[in-house]
Design brief:
Distance between the termini of chain B: 39 Å
Strand content of chain A: over 45%
Order of helices and strands of chain B: EEEEEEEEEEE
Number of helices of chain A: 0
Radius of gyration of chain B: 13 Å
Largest interface: A-B, 22 and 23 residues
Number of strands of chain B: 11
Distance between the termini of chain A: 36 Å
Radius of gyration of chain A: 13 Å
Oligomer: heterodimer
Number of strands of chain A: 13
Mean pLDDT of chain B: 95
Mean pLDDT of chain A: 96
Chain lengths: ~110, ~120
C-alpha cells in the first residue's frame, strides 16, 4: 500500500498571503509510460463532501480558481494557494490513485 | 447534473451488519466506476472499495472479508454492506464517482451519511 503523508498538519495564513501544503508518497505515483502523476488534491469543508480541486498533480478542475495550483512529481507534491481568501478555510487532502486509493491525513488551513 | 445521496440507519449495534444505499441521479451507474469512502471522527479519509462499470469489485484489504458492494442498475443505486461492525466502524460514509476508470480521481461525492456503532 502507498502511504501518503502531508505536512504540516495545520496551517494558519493571513488573508492575501500564500499557503503551501506538501504531500509525500511512500513510493512513486508517476506512471512512466505516459509521464502522468496519479495524484489529486481535494478541499473538504465541514458539512460538505470533499471537492476535487486538482488531478494528475497539476490539472485544475473546471471552475476551480486559478489561485490554486499543484506541482511536483514522483513522490513529492505541493498544493499552493497563491492569495488566501476566507472561503479557502478547509481541510485539504492529497490522494494517490496509482494503486488502490489512499489519502493523506489532511491539512487544516485557517486564517491567521 | 450528477448527484449522489447516501442513506442508512444512522446507528447500528456492535456485531450487526451495516447497510447503506447511494442513490445516483444525472448519470447511469453502469457508465462509471464507483467507490465507498469513510471518515471516522477526527480522522482522515479511508477508501472502502469500488465497483466497476462492468460489475467487478475490489476492497480495502483491511476490510475485505466484511465488505460487499453492489449496484442495482434498475434503481440506479449502489449498496454497501459491512458485517460484524465494531465501534471502529463509526464514521461518515461517502459514495463517490471515479472520473473515469478505477485509476482516476473522484469527481463527484455524496453529502455523506453518519453511522454510529453503539449498543
Amino acid at each position: 500500500d502507498i502511504v501518503m503523508t502531508q505536512s504540516p498538519d495545520s496551517l494558519a495564513v493571513s488573508l492575501g498571503e500564500r499557503a503551501t501544503i506538501n504531500c509525500k508518497s511512500s513510493q512513486s505515483v508517476l506512471y512512466t509510460s505516459n509521464n502522468k502523476n496519479f495524484l489529486a488534491w481535494y478541499q473538504h469543508k465541514p458539512g460538505q463532501p470533499p471537492k476535487l480541486l486538482i488531478s494528475w498533480a497539476s490539472t485544475r478542475q473546471s471552475g476551480v480558481p486559478d489561485r490554486f495550483s499543484g506541482s511536483g512529481s514522483g513522490t513529492d507534491f505541493t498544493l499552493t494557494i497563491s492569495s488566501l481568501q476566507a472561503d479557502d478555510v478547509a481541510v485539504y487532502y492529497c490522494q494517490q490513485y496509482y494503486t488502490t486509493p489512499s489519502f493523506g491525513q489532511g491539512t487544516k488551513l485557517e486564517i491567521k | 447534473q450528477v448527484q449522489l445521496q447516501e442513506s442508512g440507519p444512522g446507528q447500528v449495534k456492535p456485531s450487526e451488519t451495516l447497510s447503506l444505499t447511494c442513490a445516483v441521479s444525472g448519470v447511469s451507474i453502469s457508465s462509471y466506476s464507483w467507490s465507498w469512502i469513510r471518515q471516522p471522527p477526527w480522522k482522515g479519509l479511508e477508501w472502502i472499495g469500488y465497483i466497476s462499470d462492468s460489475g467487478s469489485a475490489k476492497f480495502n484489504p483491511s476490510l475485505n472479508s466484511r465488505v460487499t458492494i453492489s449496484a442495482d442498475t434498475s434503481k440506479n443505486h449502489l449498496s454497501l454492506r459491512l458485517t460484524s461492525v465494531t465501534a471502529a466502524d463509526t464514521a461518515v460514509y461517502y459514495c463517490a464517482r471515479y472520473s473515469g476508470g478505477p485509476n482516476q480521481p473522484f469527481d463527484y461525492w455524496g453529502q455523506g451519511t453518519p453511522v454510529t456503532v453503539s449498543s
